[in-house]
């Protein structure tokens, strides 16, 4: 019996960024796609777009990245993409909550929102994914049971003014990914962290910048499709040469 590989992606926005591009890229590789996100309308619209392209996809909306919400989404995913016909082989945690404020303007609610999306959410997502991976046979080509990729940012490794809350959350995700890589690599589970160092061309960034020259210039901004291609590359690495962390930036980015 043919077994279909599934990728689970958390964090979608409106579908024009890294999460959406990853869904399309892995679908082209033959994966079925499970989508987790907080915006049910955008999630359904993107799901329908993928279905119209022939993708085997289902969406699982949540109200927050609280552990109980994430666990509930995975219960629905397991029911929809049930073993033995399906097996979860890849996962991307692309969710975040951005707070860019001077430190003394940050509220307890801001801290809670950052903590829930970046820390509670990433821990809960990783737990559910790893429980699935542990039951997978080792892939004969890559030597892995599965790959879990965390989307990071410049703030994952460097703080800055007005970035204390956001950077604290992204540092936490990076530390989690490194710890998981060291613990689960020995079980043939590949954990990776991608530092996205620069602005990505998305519908939101287009509106924010309102700069047609910036949009056209690939030297100064990232393409979501190119990030997704890097994620596919990570998924195909064999066990003799695994990447834990990579950084992606446009050619002219200052760093």
Automatic annotation (TrEMBL):
SUPFAM superfamilies associated with the record: NAD(P)-binding Rossmann-fold domains
Domain of life of the organism encoding this protein: Eukaryota
Any one Pfam family match given in the protein's UniProt record, by short name: adh_short
PANTHER family reported in the protein's UniProt record: OXIDOREDUCTASE, SHORT CHAIN DEHYDROGENASE/REDUCTASE FAMILY (AFU_ORTHOLOGUE AFUA_5G14000), OXIDOREDUCTASE, SHORT CHAIN DEHYDROGENASE_REDUCTASE FAMILY (AFU_ORTHOLOGUE AFUA_5G14000)
Protein name, UniProt field: Short-chain dehydrogenase reductase sdr
Lineage start: Eukaryota, Fungi, Dikarya, Basidiomycota, Agaricomycotina
